[in-house]
Amino acid sequence: MEPLRSIDRLSLNQITTDRLNMSEAVEACVRAEVPWIALWRHKVAEAGLAESKRLVRDAGLRVSSLCRGGYFPAATATERKKRMDDNRRAVEEAAELGTDVLVLVCGPAPDRDIDFARKTVEEAIAELAPFARSHGVKLGIEPLHPMYAAERSVINTLAQANTLAEQHDPQDVGVVVDAFHVWWDPELYGQIERARGRILGFHVSDWVVPVPDLLMGRGMMGDGVIELRRMRHAVEVAGYTGAIEVEIFNRQVWDMPGDEALALIKERYLQHV
Amino acid sequence: MEPLRSIDRLSLNQITTDRLNMSEAVEACVRAEVPWIALWRHKVAEAGLAESKRLVRDAGLRVSSLCRGGYFPAATATERKKRMDDNRRAVEEAAELGTDVLVLVCGPAPDRDIDFARKTVEEAIAELAPFARSHGVKLGIEPLHPMYAAERSVINTLAQANTLAEQHDPQDVGVVVDAFHVWWDPELYGQIERARGRILGFHVSDWVVPVPDLLMGRGMMGDGVIELRRMRHAVEVAGYTGAIEVEIFNRQVWDMPGDEALALIKERYLQHV
Q1: Residue B1 covered by a domain
Q2: With an 8 Å Cβ cutoff, are A211 and B156 in contact?
Q3: Among positive and negative, which fits the CA dihedral A122, A124, A130, A136?
Q4: Best residue in B185, B188, B213, B223 for a mutation probing chain A (most A CBs within 10 Å)
Q5: How confident is residue B211, by pLDDT bands cut at 50, 70 and 90?
Q6: Which residues of B touch A234 (CB under 8 A)?
Q7: CB contact under 8 A, A145 and B149
Q8: Cis peptide before B210, with omega less than 30 degrees from 0?
């Protein structure tokens, strides 16, 4: 498996440099010649939608995805409707920011009934998909690691995400493969192949041993046990040649100066992805 | 789904009251009229094998399982052989202690090659099974939560455990269903049904929100989101009517006086399992 020879597919997922505001993150990408950025809604809201769009466009950056829609299951019909309204706004923001991928973190169950919550997710995606299509935006279902099943998403395997996505046209709904969430899965490579034509994103970080923290414990590529190059190769064989987002929730990375973080990311990306 | 009407299937997994030594744990069970106990090898070693056997037998307790064999993958052939020798001793100890179930926590990979480690586990179980059979001991493959894939076990779903077990006679190799490890799995109930005739144990605790700690964060039944009664019903429908082990890694439970912990366990067991 060949290493990547350039950073032309590298995308900085904005959460990786969470201490930088929109303008600082954009400038850091430009200085580092990182051509892609993945935006988070809270950062966009902070800078303003129009200003975020201007900053990114003027810098010549491409937006690989907007993170995130989802959080569909809720205890009441009123709350579910509110979440759906918010998802429609997320679709509009994605379109406005010039990306065709809205990443879905589907949300936890409001109670013990995980099956019902999964059904709710299925229905919500079916409801959102036509709206997204009309805005030229695809919904990327990102399965989250099973350790987040109770708090962040009831969609926990690529098999589940594929089954959901396959109910829709590949132009409308696909999956996002995040190495940190799926690396442990004994079905991983079969499910990546199954996702052919539907992979809307590939995210990298690493699983360090021992895990320092449930949420903030993601490692820099190369610091952990994930076979990142093998996985990158597999998504390519399955037809994905788009941006590769570096998405690391890690306080040490957050505490690094932006330029330093980006230099390290570029180095590790070429070495390990 | 009917609640349990008695504690006649309740087993104290010894790790739940980790601060008690063998004699104290046995006495606490007797006082609480808990009829079963699940033993851990480090506790058995501490008390001595013969003395552990005597204590348990004199108290009239039944041993639901011995925890644990496994940890098969290793970096060198020498180390793998050492682990296999240790597993044979674990089988002998299980037989000596009067239980026919040795729980297998299969172990992590020594490097990034998780597929190879999984193959090693398969081969090791095939090697160990005839020895276990000759001692009247069954091997219970316990899938561990995917968050332990890098540090404790490369067997992370019930589907995987079933596939491994099905290579053997149901009299020799089966699976152990621990609610904490498998509750999130979208395939769970289908895989419990698939395990019919091979379920060698059912362990309960709970998944609390937010998760306080990766290893020590298991909750008391009823304090979390797991549908314990539904799962207990499913394993019964699949033919399992044996002991139900309460296995909780939780410092607060460890810090409770033994009698108090057992009183709470009995109460929650009848309420939630």
Answers
A1: no
A2: no
A3: negative
A4: B185
A5: confident
A6: none
A7: no
A8: yes
pLDDT value at residue A212 = 80
Q: What is the pLDDT of residues B95-128, one digit of tens each?
A: 999 999 999 999 999 999 999 999 999 999 999 9
Residue A2 within a domain: no
- Per-residue pLDDT reduced to its tens digit, A84-113: 999 999 999 999 999 999 999 999 999 999
Residue B1 has pLDDT above 90, yes or no: no
Host H or E run for residue A78:
helix A77-97
Residue B212's pLDDT band, with cuts at 50, 70 and 90, is confident
Contact B225 A145 (CB under 8 A): no
Across the interface, whether the CB atoms of B114 and A225 are under 8 A apart is answered yes
Cβ contact A209–B185 (<8 Å): no
ipTM computed for the complex: 0.96
CB B51 within 8 A of CB B22: yes
Judged by CB atoms within 8 Å, which residues 188-217 of A form the interface with B?
A: 207, 209-211, 214
Q: Do A150 and B225 touch (CB under 8 A)?
A: yes
CB B15 within 8 A of CB B40: yes
Evaluate whether residue B64 is within a structural domain.
Answer: yes
CA end-to-end span of chain A: 10
Distance CA B22, CA B7 (A): 21
Contact A146 B150 (CB under 8 A): no
For residue A86, give the CATH number of its domain.
Answer: 3.20.20.150
**For B186, which of A111, A118, A225 is closest by C-beta distance?**
A118
Rounded to whole angstroms, the Cα distance separating A49 from A152 reads 25
CB A12 within 8 A of CB A262: yes
Q: Is the pLDDT of residue A131 over 80?
A: yes
* B162 is a domain residue: yes
CA distance linking residue B116 with residue B135, whole number of Å: 29
Contact criterion met (CB < 8 Å) for A225 and B150: yes
Q: Helix, strand or coil for residue A249?
A: coil
The mean of the pLDDT values for chain A is 97
Note the pLDDT tens digit of each residue in A10-68: 999 999 999 999 999 999 999 999 999 999 999 999 999 999 999 999 999 999 999 99
Domain that holds residue A69: 10-272
Domain count, chain B: 1
Confidence of residue B216 (pLDDT cuts 50, 70, 90): confident
User: How far away is chain A from the Cα of B167, in angstroms, using its nearest Cα?
Assistant: 17
Chain A: closest CA distance from residue B162 (Å): 13
Searching chain A, which residue's CA lies closest to the CA of residue B186? A160
Position B14 scores a pLDDT of: 97
